[in-house]
Amino acid sequence: MSGPVGPLSSPGFWLQRAAEAYLRELDARLRPLELTHTQFQLLASAGWLGREGVGPTQQQVAEFAGADRMMTSKVLGTLEARGLLVRTADPQDARLRRVTVTEPARALLRDATRIARAVDVALVGGGTELRDRLAAIAEGPSG
User: Rounded distance, CA 22 to CA 119, Å?
Assistant: First the structure.
């Protein structure tokens, strides 16, 4: 019995298609919160990185989220205009901008995180095997 051929035989093809489907679903479910998946990803990254009380730099947020720096700056500007974060100059280096998530954003992030977890479970289940495999792929080859 023969299996799929051409692109249909490629795990990479299906990984890309699955990622696109995941992002479409997440965007649809985040829409009532007036957030896109990119805004959620960057806001959640800033919140996570700043959980110890020191706001991360924009660069740190971009790197953690795996996002382009210029795009990150623009999206953070949009979130700042909505009052969801504040960007301030770093006291030691005025060229750096520190990102602080506001209290209204923390409440929004709780709701958005519940939605993202529900999408995770709905689309890929609650197990850790796939998550661990995807993390290994994202971190790149070892050694």
Answer: 8
CATH topology of domain 14-139: Arc Repressor Mutant, subunit A (1.10.10)
Look at residue 142 in the predicted model and tell me its pLDDT: 57
The structure's pTM equals: 0.88
Q: What is the pLDDT of residue 1?
A: 59
- Residue 97: beta bridge partners? 89
* C-alpha distance from residue 15 to each of 22, 64, 67, 111, 134 (Å): 10, 21, 19, 27, 10
Beta-bridge partners for 83: none
Long-range pairs, 89-95, Cβ under 8 A, ≥24: 90/57
